[in-house]
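Human: I hope this is not a bother. Would you mind checking the protein record under this note? Thank you for your patience.
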Amino acid sequence: MPEALARVRKGGRVVCGGIHMSDIPSFAYAPLWGERSVQSVANLTRDDGERFMRVAAQVSLRLETVRYRLAEANEALGALREGRLSGAAVLVP
């Protein structure tokens, strides 16, 4: 974690997504400086995913995405900030 934070740019995010993770060691504040952040994602098993997909097949899920060119990333962030997205914003090259 400390090494990942040291390598990410200011404003960047380190995402932890492992199902089995070791404890994060204590580290100095400096790697967090510059609005860097740490985020974890849900740790689900394969069985969890298979059960979800069975339920999803029985209900009417409607996925909504809005595509933005990479050059429009700031516009995508603005839409997210202002609550103008009802789905997910996707950046494409």
Summary: The helical segments are 2-7, 46-58, 73-81.
